[in-house]
Amino acid sequence: MINILLDRKESPSILESNILYLLIGILLITIGSVVQSVEIYSGLFITEYILILLPILLYLKVKGYSIRKTLRLNSISLRQIVHVILIVLLSYPIAVFFNYIGIVFLSKYGQLLPSSVPIPTSSKEFILGVLIISITPGICEEIMFRGMLLKSYESLGKKKAIIYSAMLFGIFHFNLQNLLGPIFLGIIFGLLVYKTNSILSSMVGHMTNNLIALLIGTISLHGEEMPLDIRIEIPDYIVIIGGIVMGIIALILGFVVYRLIESMPETEIREQNTSFDIPIGSFYSYSNSINKSRNMDVIEAFPLFLFIIIFIFFNYKYFFI
């Protein structure tokens, strides 16, 4: 009985996390959009640290939940860091392919919007971009998704926890053009967290991904905005051929990424059971030990239902009107 009570205090429930997710999402599209429209870098700083990170840490502290256990604040080895960076480097083109599918659809039936991410035009702005666009989301958003949400969803089973938190990660971007790619990356980040038993692995992965995007944007555009608010007039056969080529590349890279995740050095952990300790030395045995079979009930899912309604309204307003 004592151990059961300790487990209950380890992390927030699904309902608690879903309510926080809804409230933070509302803050993002209200206060966050306002401060970012005034000045993008300071606005992103406020959004990430004050609107996303601060409420989560305060809630965990006030409610008495274990911040270390909820967020998996454990160390990782240099070999694991190298594996994470390599996995994300190879995963980036796959995420681009998934976003390409969404962009093709929107270009045919809706409109495309210019990216809201600022592209550096000087070395000073590039350094600022690394701090605000790469490092900051890697810390704040990972604490929310691969920290609080992933831990809360473990009662549904490891696979559902990874998939659900990844889907919410994609939706949280409030951008149909940038939906499928983040969902895929969210799955990768979740696997890395379970493989290493540390949120530091997903933080490194998230930072690496955003840094790649920042570098590509800086090199290719040099501060010039592309007119994405028009329909793309490209012959269908070019779109199809491009999609097939990208799909083949994504499939090959996906296999390599899968093998890299399998071969990644694991962190041996001990999970506390209700009556005794279970030593766990492999990723697969660990997943089986927490892979409980139940679904999210209606009350738990209600905040997500409201969030999805907001997401649909937000995107319909900007993409299809």
Notes on the structure:
This protein is an all-alpha fold. It has helices spanning about 1-10, 15-40, 40-65, 65-70, 80-110, 125-150, 160-170, 180-195, 200-220, 235-265, 285-290, 300-320, and strands at about 270, 275-280. The protein has a two-stranded antiparallel ribbon with strand order 1-2. β1 and β2 (about 275-280) form a beta hairpin. It is globular and about 55 Å long.
What's a quick, concise take on this entry?
This protein has helices at 2-8, 14-38, 40-63, 67-71, 78-109, 123-152, 158-171, 180-196, 199-221, 236-263, 283-290, 298-319; strands at residues 269-272, 277-280. The protein is mostly helical and 321 residues long.
Keywords:
two-stranded antiparallel ribbon; disordered N terminus; single chain; about 325 residues; mainly alpha; about 0% strand
Give the arrangement of secondary structure elements.
Layout (H helix, E strand, L loop, with lengths): L1 H7 L5 H25 L1 H24 L3 H5 L6 H32 L13 H30 L5 H14 L8 H17 L2 H23 L14 H28 L5 E4 L4 E4 L2 H8 L7 H22 L2
Helix pairs in contact: 2-3, 2-6, 2-12, 3-6, 5-8, 5-9, 5-10, 6-7, 6-9, 7-8, 8-9
